[in-house]
Amino acid sequence: MTDLQLWLSAVEMGCFFGMLALAYHLVYVGAGFFNFAIGPYAMIGGLCTSWLVITYDLGVWTAASISIVLALVLSVVTELGVVRPVQKRSGGGELPALVAVAAVLFAIQQAAGYVFGYPTLPGQVLVTFGPVEVAGVTIQPNTILMIALGIVTFVVTALWIRFTRTGRLLRAVGDSNHAAALLGLPVNRVRLIAFIVAGFIAALAGILFAPKAGVHSLSGLGWSLSGFLAMVVGGTGSVWAPLLGGMLLGLVEVFLPYYFGGQAHVYGMLVIALVFFAFKPQGLFVRTVRA
To answer: What is the pTM of this model?
Structure first.
């Protein structure tokens, strides 16, 4: 494997981790806590798509659309059926909501194993075309789609947050949930929108990444942890921060095993987690609240 191929693979992994981190970021800004069910949403996107194509011979776009809708339903149920009632009963506490979301994570994984089975399924590529040769490096279609759509996702999200009314409401609620409620802003609606958009991004990420290594019902937990760490590394100061965190993890995921052995990336991830949690828990980009 050439250095260029390594860098390309790291960018692909970085885009995946970054999209998961972006989903975390949106829920954190809109609802003020970490939705650890992001990984299972991504798993449902990739796993359900493959299962529908393999089992029922559906077209990949039809299967992907159904899978995204299923992930959106799960994200809505997480907010309206789990998080909001738990926070209401606990007086708005974050810890009960985190515990509830952790339960949702494992519930989705168990349900996915029961419905779709436990074997690893091959991911489905949304668009098939021949490999592209660039500087002597062969780039597969799924790599091109992951990188291109990953970047497009960040661009569209940044424009949405900056220039649309809903995006500005999300930023206002994120600055101060209590103040936004006192001003009469639709806090609950903004929270729900944040969950829905995050669910869509996570499901899309899962669909795009599944062709790289396959997907199974237990993928959600690992993806949740990777996306959360990417968000912690990048911080919450910018919509682009999750992408930076994802790219750093992508470099670790690709280069450490190549130079130091198959499990080196696990220790690398652990070191990064320890360093950032201990010395820079706010991440590389710190979020500032407007006065």
So the answer is: 0.94
